[in-house]
Write a structure and sequence with these properties.
about 40% helix; binds adenosine monophosphate; alpha/beta; 8 strands; binds fe (iii) ion; about 300 residues; 8-stranded mixed sheet; 2 domains; DNA polymerase, domain 1; binds zinc ion
Length: about 300
């Protein structure tokens, strides 16, 4: 059973369409796929059609841009009702913030002598619901200033680089509350990732557990062997679900191939049971996992 719970489509900053992402997952032998675009559920419907056709079980999710203790943290929200008005409001605020920061990034690049326009970023980004730094990177590639997204981040867009612009975010604890009330569950994405060093220590994770966090993404390419072992120990001590995933972005991110990290079936079962509890407690239905008549776990 190959379970990959974190992947992006072109609805945010991945390079495969939602249907193409599901096809790529099927080709990679993935049985259960989490579609988790940044701050949007816009890819769910198209992914579900393809998943149904190909017999891939689909876990509908999103990776929400949150703030915790003043720092950015990515929070994976699985199976919330996407129409729950407080969730819609939170996501709208983040998406509007994403739109609003593009001109700021373009201005900083122009100050550096890079001839780029907001329109060029928009065109390269296409119909994405969640425009971000990767689209600015793609525009820089297209204009010939850099060879790859990675080089664009290294030279211009990473924290500490001259065109870096922090992302809009909502308070993590507010997202925990709203996702739970929407019948969903939350897992911290890559808590000790390249881009979030030192934000979430064991104490912080324990605090979030007390506020309703359900799991930790332990097996992620940003975590080395030692970090994974330590995070696994913290998860066990706190009785948190352990997930593993690729954080696939298509050709947009190297070394994140579908299935490069996997989630154990019993951990997925715990995640789904917690989502059922959340939906029952909230007195509303969350978004059920799409099984296609066969239960992989
Ligand atoms: P944003 O949400 O607009 O702040 O952009 C964050 C996204 O940029 C994340 O999805 C990362 O995967 C991506 N990203 C960060 N650093 C790099 C990098 N060096 N190369 C490619 N993508 C990156
Ligand atoms: Zn991304
Ligand atoms: Fe992330
Ligand atoms: Fe991600």
């Amino acid at each position: 059973m190959r379970i990959d719970l974190h992947a992006h489509s072109s609805v945010s900053d991945g390079t495969d369409t939602p249907a193409g992402l599901v096809r790529a997952a099927a080709a990679a032998g993935i049985d259960v796929l989490g579609v988790t675009d940044h701050d949007t559920s816009a890819g769910w419907a198209a992914a579900a059609v393809e998943a149904e056709a190909l017999g891939v079980a689909l876990v509908r999710g999103m990776e929400v841009s949150t703030r915790f203790r003043g720092r950015g943290v990515h929070l994976l929200a699985y199976l919330p009702d996407p129409a729950y008005p407080p969730l819609v409001t939170q996501l709208r605020a983040v998406l509007e913030g994403r739109d609003a920061r593009v001109p700021g990034m373009v201005d900083r690049l122009r100050d550096l002598g890079v001839d780029l326009t907001v329109e060029a970023v928009r065109r390269v980004a296409g119909p994405t619901a969640a425009v971000g730094r990767p689209h600015v990177a793609d525009a820089l590639v297209e204009a010939g200033y850099v060879a790859s997204r990675a080089e664009a981040f290294d030279r211009y867009l990473s924290p500490g680089r001259p065109a870096y612009h922090g992302r809009a975010a909502v308070e993590l604890e507010a997202v925990l509350d709203v996702v739970r009330a929407a019948g969903g569950v939350c897992v911290v994405a890559h808590p000790w990732g390249r881009h979030d060093p030192g934000v979430l220590d064991a104490e912080g994770l324990a605090h979030l557990r007390s506020r309703g966090l359900v799991g930790i993404e332990v097996d992620h390419q940003d975590h080395d062997v030692a970090a994974r072992a330590e995070l696994r120990g913290i998860a066990r001590a706190l009785d948190l679900v352990v997930t593993g995933s690729s954080d696939y972005h298509g050709t947009g991110k190297v070394d994140h191939d579908l299935g490069c990290n996997l989630t154990a079936p019993d951990e997925l079962a715990r995640l789904l049971a917690a989502a059922e509890d959340a939906a029952r407690e909230a007195g509303r239905s969350g978004t059920p996992m799409l099984w296609h008549g066969r239960a992989p776990v």
